[in-house]
Structure prediction request, 1528 residues.
Amino acid sequence: MTFLERYKTVRQRTEDICAPLETEDYVVQPVADVSPPKWHIGHTTWFFETFVLKSYVEGYEEFNSDYNYVFNSYYETVGARVIRTDRGNLSRPTVKDIFRYRKYVDNAMCELLSSNYNEDLNELLELGFNHEEQHQELLLTDIKYILGNNPLFPAYNSPVSEHHPINSTKEWVRFDEGIYEIGFNGQGFCFDNELGRHKVFIPEFSIASDMVSNRDYIEFIKAGGYQDFRHWHAEGFDWVKNSSVVAPMYWHFIDGEWMHYTFQGLQPVNTDAILNHISFYEASAYASWKGMRLPTEFEWEVASNKITWGSRWEWTESAYLPYPGFKKAPGAIGEYNGKFMVNQKVLRGSSEVTSPGHSRTSYRNFFHPHLRWQYTGIRLAQ
Amino acid sequence: MTFLERYKTVRQRTEDICAPLETEDYVVQPVADVSPPKWHIGHTTWFFETFVLKSYVEGYEEFNSDYNYVFNSYYETVGARVIRTDRGNLSRPTVKDIFRYRKYVDNAMCELLSSNYNEDLNELLELGFNHEEQHQELLLTDIKYILGNNPLFPAYNSPVSEHHPINSTKEWVRFDEGIYEIGFNGQGFCFDNELGRHKVFIPEFSIASDMVSNRDYIEFIKAGGYQDFRHWHAEGFDWVKNSSVVAPMYWHFIDGEWMHYTFQGLQPVNTDAILNHISFYEASAYASWKGMRLPTEFEWEVASNKITWGSRWEWTESAYLPYPGFKKAPGAIGEYNGKFMVNQKVLRGSSEVTSPGHSRTSYRNFFHPHLRWQYTGIRLAQ
Amino acid sequence: MTFLERYKTVRQRTEDICAPLETEDYVVQPVADVSPPKWHIGHTTWFFETFVLKSYVEGYEEFNSDYNYVFNSYYETVGARVIRTDRGNLSRPTVKDIFRYRKYVDNAMCELLSSNYNEDLNELLELGFNHEEQHQELLLTDIKYILGNNPLFPAYNSPVSEHHPINSTKEWVRFDEGIYEIGFNGQGFCFDNELGRHKVFIPEFSIASDMVSNRDYIEFIKAGGYQDFRHWHAEGFDWVKNSSVVAPMYWHFIDGEWMHYTFQGLQPVNTDAILNHISFYEASAYASWKGMRLPTEFEWEVASNKITWGSRWEWTESAYLPYPGFKKAPGAIGEYNGKFMVNQKVLRGSSEVTSPGHSRTSYRNFFHPHLRWQYTGIRLAQ
Amino acid sequence: MTFLERYKTVRQRTEDICAPLETEDYVVQPVADVSPPKWHIGHTTWFFETFVLKSYVEGYEEFNSDYNYVFNSYYETVGARVIRTDRGNLSRPTVKDIFRYRKYVDNAMCELLSSNYNEDLNELLELGFNHEEQHQELLLTDIKYILGNNPLFPAYNSPVSEHHPINSTKEWVRFDEGIYEIGFNGQGFCFDNELGRHKVFIPEFSIASDMVSNRDYIEFIKAGGYQDFRHWHAEGFDWVKNSSVVAPMYWHFIDGEWMHYTFQGLQPVNTDAILNHISFYEASAYASWKGMRLPTEFEWEVASNKITWGSRWEWTESAYLPYPGFKKAPGAIGEYNGKFMVNQKVLRGSSEVTSPGHSRTSYRNFFHPHLRWQYTGIRLAQ
Prediction:
């Protein structure tokens, strides 16, 4: 595909994800971590306008200079930003205004990409595509949060299937101790946090061929796992108590049965399916209860070709830290990853709401250990 | 007008107020005191459905039983309610759904009011009309807050004019000490909090013929009024410091000039106009700085025919308390006023966003002393 | 008694109250409203040093200029103050230092009062004595809070008896409607908030001869009073739910019996005694449950000679507001009362921890409606 | 030394540290992370009573069963605990009571250790000694916080010297890439978190021979380092803004000069001395501003014999995570370290307030990245 075709494809997919939304769904921000869908639509557009059009198209006229203020996310280099928790209080610009903005920028981008443009730009375009794909996943998880916390539990005609049955007889895949190479090592795009391929020494380990199922996890609940502090980090157990956590996110115990919110509305939990929507704290407590542990991100990367990828992001024991030799890119683009490298945990793999072709074995996703609105599950190691 | 005609008129006016809204504007709740416009639309409808149709129309079928949960405000008798601060997180029911609900209830109400219905109902209808008029005023103040706190400062085609010039040579109207009668004393509707007409003894007093202007108040600002604790209640001065208050709500000092957000967008403050959007704390501090005081609600009521009503609600020194012999109505309707009779201040008069015919000399409005998104001003007494 | 003798007496009583304290008890501040005893000791001393010695004794040398910062309470005129919630974090000055300071100021005061001093000072001395008496009551309530919230429930050799049996057959004392005079009207000292004796018109009313007993209140608890929102102010019911209130302060339900913390340690609740340690919200809800109400402060003052004073402060329905013609004194002394006249409720009478001779029929005590660490009870009216 | 002699020595040192304290200093808890000194005194005693005496001495009589509740820290296995933030509200047990408790336990311990006791106990005794040494360091840092945040800035006759001049011409010590062994590898005691000696592969690196000085850091301040978000983690920059951080803890800019609180009271900052009292966020931002980075804990351990230990704990880039094969001990002792292995950063080395003989090259200290009341500094790597 040409860059022009890829631009059109990635931008279209974002709009396809949002097509079933009501206008009202675009506006709300029920918690700080969940952004209003209209903000995602505007922010991904602002990315191309700010970093491509304003830098590479002579005479480009900004659509609306106020939008810089509204759709900036965390790029402090570029100017003041709307405080993140305030995004859900902004009724203007309207959804129509934002799609007009999107159309305007798309036209300018298509014109640019149809021209004989400077090929130095290609690297930035790759980043823009991957950035938009990340927001596609966030759009799906944020939409699920917005609808799944509405007392009417409305269904959503999402492009993804959420039910993934699982091999119930897990096997253990064993690896010898030794020096392994970790980090991106291929053609094409990767994020800066995967770079600096380097050697690590890994002791002998075993990793489960398959992920933990809902059935497995219900045993943990029934055994009083949420009440037994011995399996929890101190901060995890405080979180359990302060937030009155008794089950994965979206689960409700109704008339003696576990139900959960899905894009089909409220549904019985299928015990054969892969567990979903748990925090690192829960993943770690479950592993401790089983007398095992979570894999490190290095173990996972080494094993990634010999295990069944599970359609859920997999919490690892590893903290999100720079690889040796990590360098921030200069300028605003350099704010992309490095500034988040504290207090977060690495997740590996991908989920059913990850954009096609977006993940790879060296991909490092990261979230704070208490968060669970992403599609997250557990793989055991020992 | 018949009750049917009045029903149609009052319901239409609510929709007229909202007509210029974008769908997105209906959804947001930037602070706890401001409700999303769609909630007002649904809640006023829920009132007629719950208290009239479900009680008085045999075989009436509820539009959607979930709405009871969503649109209940504070009527704890009637069932669980959506936590007030969560209203802005609900994208569903959509605005269209709510207008469908409104239409459905309106049809049933019109059918009922066209029939030979039980005239006992009339008292409840009066309450419903007055309740809806109260929400019309809240709709306008909430819309102003939603748009006035948006960084784009969008104009709004509101039905009201906000500029009210004022007589700059105030006179003092003097009243003798004596026993006066206070409370509702007429035909027609009043709220329960106005009832129990009773005698009060009032010492001699003087009250200003006109309200305080922007010009007057700017003098207070220039004189350092916000920095001088001697004029403030202790809690008022804490509020000033903690909220960094330096001027009335919606005022911005831009390029050496006071601007304020109005329904025409950001405009220069007109110094001849009546002051607007101040808290009780500010009103009281201003009066103290002038060596005067605010009137009590009794003084105001006695003087109400001899002073110029100012198109702003007027803060009084009086706390919101029951009149002697105050009785709550039985059932949910009884929750209307009595439960708020602590920690609030009485405001008298009316404002330009008060619905026509809604106020009267005995009318008791009330808000917490730090709030200022209502149309509020100052009249001095001594 | 001469002023010198009175000075010595009032200062000695403060020290007598504190005599059984351990050094550690002087230091802590478990909640913002409760001050460390050492702060009371220093603050009452600071009052005489700042307003008397530094103004009236030529050549007086301040004990330690830093103490001005540490022991100022709310007198913003006089300089920066230690944030109120930080008082419990200050280990220095030590208790010994503060008693040294107290001795130093006492010596200077006694020298002054033994001399031929300017009699204009007498009014200020009266205020200082009454100010110290107020802090004597706060010392006792704060000490009770500090020990009563300690898991060891230590006893305290307090000078007061807390058990007050009550007449179980209450009578109703009836008063005609009419104009009554309210406010201080005598010889001697009163606070500025009692001044401006003025006429009020009071409708006919009846007031109970005796206060509510523990037995009465336990009936309310058993009847589910804390769960029935119909009897509560909206803010009161929120307080009940958010603070999980199920009984008066210091009550614990242990092995099927109500116990409460007293200066003798944890003791069974004596059902014949006067109810103690309740908030205005609870008082009002109890009255509503009985189908009655609380008296206004004017009714209470009119009835004060015909009812049994109950050794508890009595919550009234009245908000704490200025009397007609209320004037603040000039300077720092003027901050004494006026700045608190918002969001608080008037209490009348006195309690067993009130200093002897400190109260009178026109005395206006005041606290926020949710507070209950003072000795507070209920008298009904109708 | 015999175990008996070691017991007496370590217990005595705790008391020596506290000897200059006033009784009041033992009581306060100005922030949640700082415990009242009397709690440290009681908690270290409780440790020996609970884990040694109650388990190994037949017929041992507990001093006071309530103390179990008061002096438990985080050992959830052993029973309910006082919420950590409430420690500073407890005036009882008094300091005298606690020293009586200490004496009682010391007597029983000395009796036990003088007897022919079971040598299985020795491992637990070692843990108890090291546990007490950790609290000795916390005592000193907590005392400094309590006095350093008092507006009187009192001096403290501490056993440690805080001024450490530094070699201003730092050199770079270079290490080849390769496999290194990490973790405890010796005789004697270590904590569970150091165990599981294991191989790691480390790329080539250089590490500074000496730590960063106050002079170095003042350059960063002058260059606007605290205002330039590019050098900060996103959470670090939020911390800087929300807490208005402009310099290391205890620094005050007075009359054009940097002063800081020390155990000698407020003193000028000595520019030749090693920097102290900074957070991980500040350490990382400083390194970024220099175009360098912090070492990992593995690099530090490898280099530990070739660099000058600096008398400050050194923040590393490493997150606090379990070593391969980490196992919690069974029972309450197992809560010691593992439960804290999330969201914290490893510090290596030791400080002047570390107990003699307490640290070693494999020692892993850990704190949250925003904390700075410990004695913490910076060593650069690249």
